[in-house]
Inverse folding.
């Protein structure tokens, strides 16, 4: 059960990172350097090292699923921001 708890905690942390990036995008701010891509690469690099390692399949699944949701959310925010800008220009 220890591994499942670790995987769940990792997923929560990654979701929080995605949420921060979406909020940054919503507010037209630059996302921090240690964002989703940085963290997922670091997890993949750490796979197989140490007592708290994450299984590669779980990491890949987490990255794929959360990455797809992140991309969709960021695209939605960008579309909304573009519509707001276009609305300002036509006013």
């Amino acid at each position: 059960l220890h591994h499942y708890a670790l995987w769940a905690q990792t997923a929560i942390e990654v979701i929080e990172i995605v949420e921060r990036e979406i909020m940054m995008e919503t507010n037209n701010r630059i996302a921090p350097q240690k964002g989703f891509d940085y963290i997922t690469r670091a997890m993949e690099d750490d796979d197989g090292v140490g007592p708290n390692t994450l299984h590669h399949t779980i990491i890949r699944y987490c990255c794929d699923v959360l990455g797809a949701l992140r991309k969709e959310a960021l695209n939605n925010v960008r579309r909304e921001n573009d519509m707001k800008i276009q609305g300002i220009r036509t006013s």
Summary: Residues 49 and 70 are 27 Å apart (CA to CA). DSSP finds three helices and no strands in the chain.
